[in-house]
Design brief:
613 residues, alpha/beta, Immunoglobulin-like, TIM Barrel, Oligo-1,6-glucosidase, domain 2, 4 domains, eight-stranded parallel beta barrel, six-stranded antiparallel sheet, 30 strands
Length: 613
């Protein structure tokens, strides 16, 4: 037994509350090292000594390239819990507790792992509607100025104080409203808008006035009307909050430029030396050394209160449903805790997404954000689907590692995407191969997390430079793959397992590009199969049954399935299903596959699995 690989961290993604009497406990071990893992738990405040403990077998919940992850759900009356583990590798049994490993448990409860108290205030509370989202991400300037139309020409307008603002392609909020039927046909039930507040540049990340809509996009009435029309159609609206920095014409920064340290807003900025030099690069702290984006000091009480008032104002005034928060990882945690508290006072189910490109566990423990932009998802899809530098076994392992980074409820609402306003279009990574792009989007809709479409992905927009990946929505180009997106959205909407069911890799054919995984909940079991390669790929249903029941567990069988060297990948999931009389029903056409399943080049299919009762 490799004890060096064993890991449990209390009060983390390895031990978290899902309800006042619901705990999830996880344990990591070396891959394929442990045969059996048992959780023992008891009441920390039990008046007897030694305390009574209950025994709960743990199930293997995930496997990556190095580790297995075991999980158990404690559903009991206890609010104070202590616990330890028994690990058995078939040769050795050992206990694992708060301090060490041992062959026999002789220590007292205080040396067990501890979950001191399940406080209702500390339970992760994510809006119930969030896991059902199909998101459409709109860069307002580039989307629409009318029904299926975009002017394609920029504007220059002047605010009341004489400050100029501009747009590039002429998109407006009323243009978004005119195309809500188009978005509904895609299956969209949430739109995320890049910044819409008054700002100097076309992208609007250099805010002038946080309390007014940029006139290039319309006015307050246009935003309110857009939100009203969205809500009539069951569509939520998320705005972009740029609170790490402001623009050069933000009132407080202009006052500092004029008065220097004598300005009462001098401390509103994170680092502002004397003299203030508005140069390239600037003498003061700014986002990415851009002088037009001075960094706000969110540790200053006045700044914090001001920005929280922005967050609550737009919920009260326009009834928005959430915020995507820009450069969230460069802002102090206390501000985000304050922001969450204030906006939730106004709308308890407001949804908060942080822009964090790396692992974000310290922001996702329930006191700051509900979700983050899942760049890890986009990196894995780029390597597997677009570039083809990752095999199915590697992809499955890294996806499962990605999922296990966070508590399950948090993993379900990560904002998954393939491209955005900050990175090249996914089709460009695919070398223009639309088949690869479409297969990646199929996976986006079937995987764990919230699927997000960047405007025009369905029209095959390409581009690696900013001016290209933010180009005009090609309304004249036709439907593209919008019909497929609509079909996949409908399947996701109609099947709860795709929105909340667990995820288990079951089939990995590395040489042929085959990959399959299960999404399963109490209502149904779905099998999703992909062929990430040219030609055809045939999978016998009998072989799938063996893999799903665990009857096919040896390395040779796995190698045969995967077309790899013996032991190169394993395709085993224990589900307890029957071995005969299975049915695989294709959800797109209702066809039942009895003997074999055929996948074409870069094709994905989703099946409902039924077995004899």
């Amino acid at each position: 037994m490799n004890k060096g690989a064993v890991l449990h961290i209390p009060l983390s993604q390895y031990a978290y509350a899902e309800g006042e009497h619901e705990l999830t406990i996880r344990l990591r071990t070396e891959k394929n090292d442990i045969k059996r893992c048992i959780l023992f738990y008891g009441d920390r405040a039990d008046p007897t000594e030694p305390i009574a403990v209950k025994e709960l077998p743990m199930q293997k919940a995930a496997t990556d390239d190095l580790f297995d992850y075991y999980e158990a759900g404690v559903r009991d009356i206890y609010t104070r819990v202590c616990y330890y583990f028994l690990l058995d590798d078939g040769r050795e049994q050992t206990y694992y507790y708060g301090r060490n490993f041992c062959g026999e448990m002789t220590c007292g409860r205080t040396e067990y792992f501890q979950f001191p108290y399940i406080r209702r205030e500390d339970i992760i509370d994510i809006p119930a509607w969030a896991k059902d989202i199909v998101m459409y991400h709109i860069f307002p300037d580039s989307f629409a100025s009318g029904r299926r139309a975009l002017e394609g020409a920029g504007k220059r307008m002047t605010l009341d104080d004489g400050t100029d603002v501009e747009s590039n392609l002429g998109g407006t909020l009323s243009g978004v409203k005119e195309n809500l039927d188009y978005l509904k046909a895609l299956g969209v039930n949430c739109i995320y808008l890049n910044p819409v507040f008054a700002a100097n540049s076309y992208h609007k990340y250099d805010t002038i006035d946080y309390f007014s809509v940029d006139p290039c996009f319309g006015g307050l009435s246009d935003l309110k009307e857009l939100v009203r029309e969205c809500h009539k159609r069951g569509v939520r609206v998320i705005l972009d909050g740029v609170f790490n920095h402001c623009g050069p014409d933000f009132f407080a920064f202009r006052d500092v430029l004029e008065k220097g340290k004598a300005s009462k807003y001098y401390d509103w900025f994170y680092y502002m030396p004397e003299p203030v030099e508005y140069t390239d690069p600037p003498s003061y702290e700014a986002f990415a050394y851009v002088k037009e984006m001075p960094k706000l000091n969110t540790g200053n009480q006045g700044v914090a209160e001001y920005l929280c008032s922005v967050g609550t104002y737009w919920i009260k005034e326009a009834d928005i449903d959430g915020w995507r928060l820009d450069v969230a990882n460069e802002i102090n945690h206390d501000f985000w805790r304050m922001f969450r508290r204030e906006v939730r006072k106004v709308k308890p189910d407001v949804f908060l997404i942080g822009e964090i490109w790396e692992d974000a566990g310290c922001w996702l423990s329930g006191d700051q954000f509900d979700s983050t932009m899942n760049y890890t998802f986009s990196y894995l899809c780029k390597d597997f689907f677009a570039r083809g530098v990752m095999c199915a076994s590697e992809f499955d392992a890294q996806i499962q590692r990605m999922i296990m980074r966070y508590p399950w409820s948090v993993a379900l609402v990560q904002m998954n995407f393939l491209d955005s306003h900050d990175v090249p279009r996914f089709l460009s990574y695919c070398g223009g191969d639309r088949r690869k792009m479409e297969l990646a989007f199929f996976y986006l809709f079937m995987g764990v997390g919230v699927p997000s479409i960047f405007y025009g992905d369905e029209c095959y927009i390409e581009g690696t430079a900013e001016c290209e990946y933010r180009k005009a929505m090609p309304w004249e180009a036709g439907a593209g793959c919008a019909g497929k997106f609509g079909q996949w959205s409908a399947i996701r909407r109609e099947h709860s397992a795709l929105r909340g069911g667990n995820y288990r890799g079951v089939y990995r054919a590395d040489k042929q590009g085959g990959y399959g995984f299960i999404r399963e909940d109490e209502e149904e079991t779905l099998l999703i199969l992909l062929h990430n390669g040219d030609g055809e790929h045939v999978i016998e249903t009998g072989r799938l049954q063996e893999l799903l029941t665990g009857a096919r567990t040896d390395s040779a069988a796995a190698a045969e399935d995967c077309g790899a060297e013996s032991g190169a990948c394993m395709a085993v999931v224990e589900t307890g299903m029957a071995e005969n009389g299975w049915q695989f029903t294709d959800l797109s056409n209702g066809k039942k596959e009895e003997e074999e399943i055929l996948l074409g080049a870069y094709e994905g299919r989703v099946f409902r699995i039924t077995t004899p009762q």
